[in-house]
Amino acid sequence: MITTIAYTLTLFTTAVLLLGAVAWALLRRRGEARQAAQRITVTFAVFALATGYVWLEVGPDLDYRLQAWDQPLLARPAPQEQEV
């Protein structure tokens, strides 16, 4: 599930990134619009890198741990206090 969401977000941010780059390239004479397109491109480039990392590195392992039956999500349960 996490992998699917990260994949979808990666595609979306990549599409917005490409549209921002095209707008930045086409708006040579309009300074304010070109700066806005540049900010959008940089912002969504960071988002695309982050979601790509989750999709490729973190997501599959986390999905596997969430699907495992009868196993805790954490490696070891917290120690319980004992009464004397």
Range of helix content: over 70%
Domains, number: 1
Which class do the helix and strand fractions yield? mainly alpha
Termini distance? 45 Å
Mean pLDDT: 81
What's the Cα radius of gyration?
A: 21 Å
What's the total helix number?
Answer: 2
Shape: elongated
N-to-C order of helices and strands:
HH
Low-confidence stretches: none
Annotation, overall tally of beta strands: 0
Oligomer designation: single chain
Which range does the strand content fall in? under 5%
Largest beta-sheet details: none
Structure description:
The chain is mostly helical and 84 residues long. It has one domain (2-67). Helix content is 74%, strand content 0%. The protein has 2 helices and no strands. Helix 1 runs antiparallel to helix 2 (31-67). It is elongated and about 80 Å long. The termini are far apart. The model has no long low-confidence stretch (mean pLDDT 81).
Give a concise summary:
With 84 residues, the chain is mainly α. Helix 1 packs antiparallel against helix 2 (31-67).
Secondary-structure map:
Elements: H1 2-26, H2 31-67
Key words describing this protein structure:
74% helix, 0% strand, 84 residues
